[in-house]
Specification:
single chain; Helix Hairpins; about 70% helix
Length: about 280
């Protein structure tokens, strides 16, 4: 029973599936109906049903019996509407998918700009402050051989790991300088309406902007009390986690859509201690 309900929820979950279901029902009823009422063969009954649904017209044949005429009315009422619904919704779905691809590409262009200007350099700083980075560093050395399964496994690991920032090693003044130099850029990203269509990226930007604001309101950084350092540690850790997860998603997108940008992103991997943009392997591009 639960499986039947699950199937029904799936079929009724979108208009196009509903129209497909109605169209299939009309065809299933129409073919044997014409075979019985009009004495037609299977092929002729199928032809009769499809001609009625598509409103092409019968030409030299038409229903002769009362039952056949009643069935034809049923097919016209139910079949034509469902057929038009399938066609219209299919066209709409095609245009929606095309628009979604365009919007996704725009979003990923913004994501790429973020990592080029801020994100990659910031992850280098965060990873240097992570006392346990060596436990996952090897898992983050992405190569061109990675499959969707490999990305999914590492994504699950990044979502569940406990991130840490060692504030005793942090140069908060330098971090503040770095972020304030890019503050206008971050603000422009937040002002772009496309950004808010990607929840994870939006949360990463908001977390980073909060870190920028927190550091901006402080003067000297040398004598901050432990309670304040703990508060800043929480803010930095949250930013670190969100940006790391967004970075992995962006790397997966580049691998699937832009091999040249993916090649550069692999070479400047913020988790690779030996990262270098210089191409040293023959055939790399």
């Amino acid at each position: 029973m639960s499986r039947v309900l699950a199937v029904l929820r799936y079929l009724l979950g979108s208009p196009i599936r509903v129209y497909f279901l109605l169209l299939a029902l009309v065809i299933v009823v129409g073919i044997p109906g014409f075979m019985i009422t009009e004495g037609l063969s299977l092929l002729d009954a199928f032809y009769f049903t499809m001609v009625t649904i598509t409103t092409v017209g019968y030409g030299d044949i038409y229903p002769l019996t009362t039952g056949g005429k009643v069935l034809t009315v049923f097919i016209i009422v139910g079949g034509v509407g469902s057929f038009v619904g399938v066609v219209v919704n299919s066209i709409e779905a095609w245009f929606n998918r095309k628009e979604q691809r365009v919007r996704l590409n725009k979003m990923k262009l913004l994501t790429g700009a973020f990592f080029s200007e801020v994100g990659t350099k910031l992850l280098v700083r965060y990873s240097r402050l992570d006392p346990e980075i060596d436990k996952i560093r090897h898992d983050l050395l992405i190569t061109g051989d990675w499959t969707d399964t490999a990305f999914a496994n590492v994504s699950a690991s990044l979502h569940t790991r406990e991130y840490r920032i060692d504030m005793s090693q942090a140069d908060l003044k330098e971090l503040r300088r770095f972020l304030f130099q890019r503050r206008d850029f971050l603000l422009r990203l937040l002002e772009n309406p496309v950004v808010f269509e990607q929840e994870q990226f939006t949360r990463a930007l908001q977390a980073l902007f909060h870190v920028t604001e927190e550091l901006g309101y402080r003067g000297a950084m040398e004598d901050l009390p432990e309670t304040d350092l703990e508060h800043l540690t929480h803010d930095l850790t949250r930013s670190y986690r969100l940006i790391a997860m967004e970075w992995l998603d962006y790397m997966k997108y580049l691998k699937e859509s832009s091999p040249y940008l993916f090649s550069l992103a692999m070479r400047v991997n913020p988790f690779d201690k030996n990262a270098s943009p210089v191409v040293e392997v023959e055939g790399a591009s």
